[in-house]
Fold this protein.
Amino acid sequence: MARALRDAGMEVVYTGIRQTPDQIVEAAIQEDVDVIGLSILSGAHMHLIPRIMELLREKRADVLVICGGITPKEDVSHLKEIGVREVFGPGARTDDIIKFIKNNVRAKGSS
């Protein structure tokens, strides 16, 4: 995914696996990112993502959050309720993810 985003002209900051919510949010703020893309295959999405969303709110970080991986349908609505903009499941097309990001990220400095 990182390579597809880079090839689409986006700057990608990959922090690696097994990052804590605090590390993810801190890296996003330090790098001044527009999007946080999370891929969680462990089933821990309902533990990790709410904490990430809470930290982003606490730090007043205006960042689009998307996620992918194995996400049961019953969890998708809750994730969207807490602020995740989109959940991409297995088999999602990289073109669709790129298009979603481009359509939902405001240029820095615009309102």
Notes: The chain has five helices and three strands. The first helix runs from residue 2 to 7. The domain at 2-10+26-103 is CATH 3.40.50.280 (Rossmann fold). The chain has a mean pLDDT of 93.
